[in-house]
Amino acid sequence: MKLFLFFLFSSFEYISIFIMMLILFRQKIRIHLGKIAFLCIFLSLVSHFIRYTLQLNEFAIIVQIITMVASLRYLWNIQWFYSIVMAVISYCAFLAINVLTFILMNSLGLIRLDQLQEADGTGLAYMGYVLQLVTVCMCTVFIVIIRYLNRGWAFVPDGEKDIEYGKKENQQLLIASLIAFIAFGSILFIGNMWGNTTFTISFFVLACILATLFYLATKKDEAEYD
Predict the structure, then answer these.
(1) Residues 44, 132: contact at Cβ < 8 Å?
(2) What is the predicted pLDDT for the residue at 71?
(3) What is the pLDDT of residue 226?
(4) What is the pLDDT of residue 70?
(5) Strands annotated E in the chain
(6) Which residues, including other chains, have CB under 8 Å from residue 21's CB and lie 6 or more apart?
(7) Positive or negative CA dihedral for 47, 52, 58, 63?
(8) Residues sharing a CB contact under 8 Å with residue 30, sequence separation 6 or more, in sequence order
(9) How far, rounded to the nearest angstrom, does the alpha carbon of residue 73 sit from its chain's CA centroid?
(10) Chain-centre distance of CA 33, in angstroms?
(11) Burial level of 4, CB count in 10 A (0-12/13-18/19+)?
């Protein structure tokens, strides 16, 4: 039962990440539904294996992002540069929403950090699933707002296209994405050492990274269509 719940709620999270990604980068959702379903199951399997079989929770996000980037490249045929940017921005947005959700619920006395995992470390506790569900609802609200405001970027090409890495906007976006990737792993390591006190700091770090990525993606979009 615990394994089923883990796969179910993890799949909900991955669905929200991929839908957010497609909305932000103005991609068609319907043609990718099959790939999204496959990747949600596969990423849930990878996540469970890393977290509870290998007991390497600190590396879970890093492995998930690498898997997402590789999936975008080889399953969706999106070039490496765009795959990295799409995966990092979408995961950063999701992670920021997830941390903010925990902070809000914790401040209201609805949830504590020690309630998220089973005491024996074999899986999520029921409050962990509650946090996942509320996070998905918050992501849905964010997606609806983005869609309503018609925000997003159209610089990801439909087919193969030469990428000019010498361009300033491309260099900035790639470097910022790599820094964000490193920051994700660092936040997890620090969080495990310092516990609950790091969540507020983590959120502001993620918010700053996300704002930077959104700004650079907007500059990239403007440069493509000027």
Answers:
(1) no
(2) 93
(3) 62
(4) 95
(5) none
(6) 27, 86, 87, 89, 90
(7) negative
(8) none
(9) 17
(10) 18
(11) exposed
Determine if residue 152 is left, alpha or beta; phi over 0 gives left, psi from -120 to 50 gives alpha, anything else beta.
left
Cβ proximity of 84 and 69 under 8 Å: yes
In single-letter form, the type of residue at position 66 comes to I
Q: Residue 91: name the closest of 46, 61, 57, 131 by CA.
A: 61
From 54, 57, 56, 78, select the one nearest 68 (Cα to Cα). 78
Q: Which amino acid does the sequence have at 209?
A: I
pTM of the model: 0.91
Quote the Cα angle for 200-203-206, to 5°.
150
The Cα angle at residue 180 between residues 208 and 178, in degrees rounded to 5: 140
In the chain (226 residues long), the average pLDDT of successive 10-residue segments reads 85 95 92 91 90 82 92 92 95 93 90 76 80 95 93 85 83 93 74 62 87 94 78
Q: Which residues contact 219 (CB under 8 A, 6 or more apart)?
A: 169, 172
In sequence order, the 6+-apart residues with CB closer than 8 A to the CB of 191 are: 198, 199, 202
**What is the tally of helices (H) and strands (E) in the chain?**
7, 0
CA distance 47 to 70: 15
What is the sign, positive or negative, of the torsion defined by CA atoms of 6, 133, 84, 72? positive
| Gap between the Cα atoms of 7 and 50, Å rounded | 14
Q: Decide: 91 and 184 in contact? Cβ < 8 Å.
A: yes
Q: What is the pLDDT of residue 197?
A: 63
| Inter-CA distances, 144 with 23, 87, 140, Å | 9, 19, 6
